[in-house]
Amino acid sequence: MNIHEYQAKAILRRFGVPVPDGHVCYNGASAREWAKRLGDGPWVVKAQIHAGGRGKGGGVKLARTSQEVQLIARNMLGMTLRTHQTGPDGKLVTRVLVENGCNIDRELYISLLVDRSTSKVTVMASTEGGMDIEEVAATTPEKIFKEAIDPLVGLSPFQCRNLAFSLGLTGKLLPKAQKLLENLYATFIACDCSLLEINPLVVTKEGDLLALDAKFGFDDNAIFRHLQISDMRDYDEEDPNEVEASQHDLSYVSLNGNIGCLVNGAGLAMATMDIIKFSGGEPANFLDVGGGATIERVTEAFKIILSDKNVKGIFVNIFGGIMKCDVIATGVIEAARQVSLQVPLVVRLEGTNVALGKQLLSESGLNIVAADGMADGAQKIVQAVAA
Ligand code: ADP
Ligand code: MG
């Protein structure tokens, strides 16, 4: 799960990480009022969308008067912002953050993430703040510094000093950097984060450290422990089909192809996508209906797949291990009737009671193409969609 910048900054503030004062606003008039309350300016108006690169796309603007804040906010609200992270469709801006502008001396980069290669939380720091870290890693990897944190010991003072020195944070900035890093690590652990990225972390002309941008990723498996955070979820930022699927406990990720896939088990779902590609087709989605697929869930899964207008055919690939094939077949037939299926449907069943399952499908009177094995099924659906 992701959250907006203004929400991220509220969390950081609570953990003692310095951020500029600011407030989220939904219209121009309130943006102007909040600007006046925040101080004498200048202010920065920032589009709140779940994507970075807003600065370059016109989503971060400086204002010198409160009237200017109002004008910029009014223009930004309702606009579709395109950045290199939003994709070509862009994202609709429905809220802006109005915050105090600061005098930037240097822009740095800091992130904490779960590093799978060391199985530890790792701090990444770079002097190249404000840039895409992927680009820095590709062109000047020597400018990225890392410290892997021992989970039992936590972030040690020597590691904070290492990081601070590599960023040139010495003298009066050193204790500030140390405190900031400790607080970031405390935030990361307390909130069950998968990612916490500050880009940029700035050194101001006045000699302070300030987190100017913040991005959080949370571990979805732990989100139930954080009601305040799960309340921050903004469904407008997510694919509506994926939201619908998650409400029915289906793992669904929409993709760009035209072959809908209904599969049980994540591994089989991945293999199904691979074999569709191998046979010259393009999957429209990843969908795992899980081990205990009931008729209701299979029906929901069909509805979600079919609400994607690009879908020209469906490939059902089920291995009945715990689930019996006749139960699955009944579910597929029922679902196909309920949604009055118009597109070709190829079904491959294997496992317990497979003969009975196949018999039910062939006697259903529905236009279902039975497949023998995965490769056969993939070829048949690719042909059906191409026809
Ligand atoms: P994004 O990463 O989406 O482009 P940022 O929040 O990082 O958005 O803002 C882009 C740039 O705008 C920053 O690198 C910084 O130079 C400037 N900026 C952002 N917020 C402020 C602020 N409060 N005061 C001064 N400059 C800011
Ligand atoms: Mg940024």
TrEMBL record:
One annotated GO molecular function: succinate-CoA ligase (GDP-forming) activity
Gene3D superfamilies cross-referenced by the UniProt entry: ATP-grasp fold, A domain, ATP-grasp fold, B domain, Succinyl-CoA synthetase domains
Cofactor: Mg(2+)
Binding site for ATP: 46, 53-55, 99, 102, 107
Biological process, per Gene Ontology: succinyl-CoA metabolic process; tricarboxylic acid cycle
Keywords: ATP-binding, Ligase, Magnesium, Metal-binding, Nucleotide-binding, Tricarboxylic acid cycle
Name of one Pfam family that matches: ATP-grasp_2
The UniProt record lists the keyword Metal-binding: yes
Residues reported in the UniProt entry to bind substrate: 264, 321-323
Broadest EC class assigned to this enzyme: ligase
Highest taxon listed in the record's lineage: Bacteria
The record's free-text note on cofactor binding: Binds 1 Mg(2+) ion per subunit.
EC number: 6.2.1.5
Pathway where it operates: Carbohydrate metabolism; tricarboxylic acid cycle; succinate from succinyl-CoA (ligase route): step 1/1
Record's catalysed reaction(s): GTP + succinate + CoA = succinyl-CoA + GDP + phosphate; succinate + ATP + CoA = succinyl-CoA + ADP + phosphate
Annotated residues for binding of Mg(2+): 199, 213
Entry coiled-coil feature ranges: none
Cellular component aspect of the GO annotation: cytosol; succinate-CoA ligase complex
The ATP-grasp domain, residue ranges: 9-229
Function statement: Succinyl-CoA synthetase functions in the citric acid cycle (TCA), coupling the hydrolysis of succinyl-CoA to the synthesis of either ATP or GTP and thus represents the only step of substrate-level phosphorylation in the TCA. The beta subunit provides nucleotide specificity of the enzyme and binds the substrate succinate, while the binding sites for coenzyme A and phosphate are found in the alpha subunit.
Similarity comment: family membership: Belongs to the succinate/malate CoA ligase beta subunit family.
HAMAP family registered for this protein in UniProt: Succ_CoA_beta
PANTHER family recorded: SUCCINATE--COA LIGASE [GDP-FORMING] SUBUNIT BETA, MITOCHONDRIAL (PTHR11815:SF10), SUCCINYL-COA SYNTHETASE BETA CHAIN (PTHR11815)
Summary of subunit composition and partner proteins: Heterotetramer of two alpha and two beta subunits.
Protein name stated in the entry: Succinate--CoA ligase [ADP-forming] subunit beta
Native species: Geobacter metallireducens (strain ATCC 53774 / DSM 7210 / GS-15)
